Structure formats: C-alpha cells, structure tokens
Amino acid sequence: MIFGVLKDIKNGEYRVIATPAEVGVLVGDGHTVLVQSGAGAKAGFPDTEYEAAGARIVGTMEEIYAESDFAAKVKEIEPCEYDLLREGQIIFTCIHPAAHPEELDALLEKKVIAFTAEDTHRYGSPNCEAAGKAGAFLGLYAMMSMNGGCGKFVSGLGAAPNVKVMVLGCGTVGRAAIDTLYRMGAWVSVGATSIGHLRELNEHYHGEVSTFISNRYNIAKLLPEVDMVVNCVRWPKDATEFLIDRAMVRTMHPGSVIVDISNDYGVIETFHETTHEDPMYIEEGVVHYCVSNITGAIAGSTSVAYAASVLPHFRAIMKLGIKEACARDGYLRRGLTAYRGYLTHEESSAIQHRPWVPPEVILGLQGRELDPAPRATKSRSTEFYPEFA
C-alpha cells in the first residue's frame, strides 16, 4: 500500500502525523511511504531523516493525494484539499465532523473512507494530554502583565499568594492541566459531574486539590475568587445554555484569565477561536486564550507521542484491510466516519440531522464477535439510511 504523510496547513499547526520512526516501521512492513516536503520540519524532523528511514519526499499535497492509497495528517481537511480527495482513498485525521458540516459534505461526496482520529484512542489521545499541559503553561503566560493579565505568579512570591485556578473537566485534558498546575504551585479547584472521578482526584492529591460538582450555580459562586479558568469540558454540540455566560465572566476580577482548551462554541459565551499568531484577546476585562490547536506550540513532543499512538491503527488497516481491522479494534471502528459515500458517525448524524449507518453494519460485521468499545459521545441518532433501517 502507498501511505502518504501530509504537511499540515492549518494556521499555527506544526505537528506531523508520523515521525521517521513510524515511517521506518511502515517501510519495514513492505509499504511505500511518501512524505510531503517539510511535513515534519517544525516538529524537528527534516526531510533527510525521513529519507534515511526509507520514505520518498514529494513536493506538494497534490502529489500525496494523487499517489496515496492512504493519506494522513493531524488536523482537519481544509477546503483547498476537498477536490484532491479520491474515491476509495483512506483518510485518517482529526476531522471533528459534527462541528464541520462542509468538511463532512466533501468526505461523503468524494466517497472516501475516512476515520476521525480523535475517536480512535483507547487510552486517551496524547494530543489531549499535550493540550492540558500546554494550556496550563500558556494560561499562566497570558496572566503576565504585558499581556493584559493581573501579573500574578503561579506559586506566589514571599508574601504574595499562589494563583487560584479553576479547572473544568477531569478527563485526559483536565487531568493533564491539573497535574501541571498543581506541580507548579497553583491552588487548584476542579469541577466535574462525576463524584467518583472527583473522589479519585482528591485521593490522588491527598486532599490538596479542591473539588466541586460542575454546574452553573457552583461555578458562579467561585468565579469571583479565581485568577484563571481552564475549560477542558467536551461540550454537547446541541447544548442550548452556556456553562459560563457573559454575566458570569463579568464577575471575574480584571486581568484574570480564561483558557478554553476544548474550543467548543456554547460553553463560554465570550469565547471565539484564536490562532498562535494572535492568541489572546480581552473581553469583560478578562484575558482569553482560545487557540484551537494549542498543542501545536509543543509540536516536537506531541508529534512523537501522537505518532506512536496511531501507528498501530495504520499497521492494522494496511495489513488486515478496513473490515478486519475494525472488527479487531472497537476504537478504530467507532472512528469510522465516512465509508464510500455513507455517513457512519452517529454524533454527526444526531447534530446535523443526516441519515447514518453504524460501521459494523456497512462493513458487514453483524453476527461476529467484535472488540468492544464505548460510544464516543452521548449523542444518539435513529435517522438511518432507508436501505439500512
């Protein structure tokens, strides 16, 4: 099989989906690997290292799409790539399909076989860990005086107290942010909806991290007291109420900070997406840091960890084929988003009111014993294609 490593083109994106280490493994498996020139340069992997691992360097994304049976990158497929997609081509990237209907339209129209990478991680994505850790650092940077922040230092100075941080969510992203902030000396309060998860955190940090049930009432009480909010909540895309509305933001003291790592519209009313080139803005006196690909700031480490985590998926697909690879790995199966013109992603069906078909049905896996995996989200849809109803 011909595997293509695309250079990511999203603003401020420096990660790469495969490092020379993964390329060497795929070449050793007998596959041809094409790498777009400069794909790994900003993450610390020059073209020469890919060539030494056995890859062929090509100049453009047009060549990657034209020659590859299987093309992969880190972030979403951009509009300039839509016409390059080929029927039956395998695509693996962070699609975020429920939030990007036009991108999904292109994947369905081109009849590709597309996997939403963010749904395929059995042990949590290294991107999520990286986002939590980098988000914590960048939030503290946003708090510095030259950025419009209140100028407080995370662990305090002599008679000056430590920074108070509210972290919302304690999944992979939230736990990474909590751990980083705690180790740096911040006073951390964590809001989540699971008492069990909060109890685990309390025990892990020996009672040195405060916990509370995440709801608007509790958050509103705490906001005037905190210096920074780190949002790590994966918000339902069909939610009708903000978790933190503008009036609540207004109660925060001037120069405090909101870091929205999740980057989902609908959680924080004052949120709008930013880039690494212009990452911060001030609204209601509060500094907002809302970069969608925050992990691009630590592209070297993230690329190494992320590429290692997705390599088993690449090898399984290329060795076993789509059907068998999905049968043996429930997390890969739940990430199947588009299959030769059919939508196979339930959340996208529910949010966008499109018909869909479950992956195991379109792949003809009914009746087989399949590797189990929990559903990727709580969204449910009964809007099936008539031929699969």
Tell me the CATH architecture of the largest domain.
3-Layer(aba) Sandwich
| Count of beta strands | 15
> Main beta sheet, described?
8 strands, mixed
The CATH class of the largest domain is Alpha Beta
First-last Cα distance: 34 Å
Work out the radius of gyration.
22 Å
Q: What form results from the Cα inertia axes?
A: globular
Low-confidence stretches: none
Secondary structural class? alpha/beta
Mean pLDDT rating? 96
Number of domains: 2
Side by side, the strands of the main sheet go 3-2-1-4-5-6-14-15
Assigned CATH superfamily of the largest domain: NAD(P)-binding Rossmann-like Domain
Describe how the helices and strands are arranged.
Layout: E1 2-5, H1 20-28, E2 32-36, H2 47-52, E3 56-58, H3 61-67, E4 70-72, E5 90-93, H4 101-109, E6 113-116, H5 126-142, E7 164-168, H6 172-183, E8 187-192, H7 195-204, E9 210-213, H8 216-222, E10 228-231, H9 246-250, E11 257-260, E12 280-283, E13 286-289, H10 299-320, H11 322-328, H12 330-335, E14 336-339, E15 342-343, H13 346-352, H14 359-362
Parallel strand pairs: 1-2, 1-4, 2-3, 4-5, 5-6, 7-8, 7-10, 8-9, 10-11, 11-13
Antiparallel strand pairs: 6-14, 12-13, 14-15
Summarize the structure.
This protein has 14 helices and 15 strands.
Fill in the keyword field for this structure.
389 residues, 14 helices, single chain, alpha/beta, Rossmann fold, 8-stranded mixed β-sheet
Question: What this model shows, in words?
Answer:
The chain is α/β, with parallel strands linked by helices and 389 residues long. The protein folds into two domains: 2-124 and 298-388, NAD(P)-binding Rossmann-like Domain (Rossmann fold), CATH 3.40.50; 127-289, NAD(P)-binding Rossmann-like Domain (Rossmann fold, 3-Layer(aba) Sandwich). It is 33% helix and 15% strand. The chain is built from 14 helices and 15 strands. It has helices at residues 20-28, 47-52, 61-67, 101-109, 126-142, 172-183, 195-204, 216-222, 246-250, 299-320, 322-328, 330-335, 346-352, 359-362; strands at residues 2-5, 32-36, 56-58, 70-72, 90-93, 113-116, 164-168, 187-192, 210-213, 228-231, 257-260, 280-283, 286-289, 336-339, 342-343. The protein has an eight-stranded mixed sheet with strand order 3-2-1-4-5-6-14-15, sandwiched between helices. It has a seven-stranded mixed sheet with strand order 9-8-7-10-11-13-12, with helices on both faces. The protein is globular. It starts with a strand and ends in a 27-residue tail after the last helix. The mean pLDDT is 96.
